[in-house]
Design brief:
Length: 145
């Protein structure tokens, strides 16, 4: 493991962060801790918090997916859509047809200029939206991995 994992045997962290499940207790009648996951970026900013009740286990595939998405966003200035990396896309094209070529694609962040997008992700697709503002830009998954 290349990232810190924190144990909390005395429940001091759990207490400080309100992570106790009052509805479930152990043999000593102490509240169980919820299953919490905090992902913190290199600047020590909380990027993701997942809380599961004590009776529900964590989904490690989802946690791994979130870490991957956050790393890609941090390193490549992209955002991942719902269900990424298995998201489907049926993108309307300028000629009125629909394209499924963008399955697994990601979005460029609005902070990425057109010049930077052209340089880093040639061939990205700008979706035609009613406002005509070119903010919804898709990048194929092959270009960000």
């Amino acid at each position: 493991v290349k990232f810190p994992i924190i144990g909390d045997a005395d429940r001091s962290i759990s207490t400080a962060f309100g992570m106790l499940d009052a509805g479930n207790s152990d043999e000593q009648e102490l509240p169980l801790t919820i299953r919490a996951v905090f992902i913190i970026n290199p600047e020590n900013k909380l990027m993701l918090s997942l809380n599961y009740p004590a009776c529900v286990g964590r989904n490690m595939d989802e946690i791994f997916r979130c870490v991957q998405a956050l790393q890609l966003s941090y390193e490549k200035s992209i955002a991942t859509p719902a269900n990424w990396p298995h998201n489907h896309s049926d993108i309307p094209m300028p000629d009125g047809s629909r394209s499924g070529d963008f399955a697994g694609s990601v979005f460029l962040l609005p902070t990425v200029s057109a010049e930077e997008a052209d340089a880093r992700y040639p061939g990205y697709h700008t979706c035609d939206v009613p406002s005509k503002i070119p903010y919804l830009r898709l990048v194929k998954k092959e270009q960000v991995q």
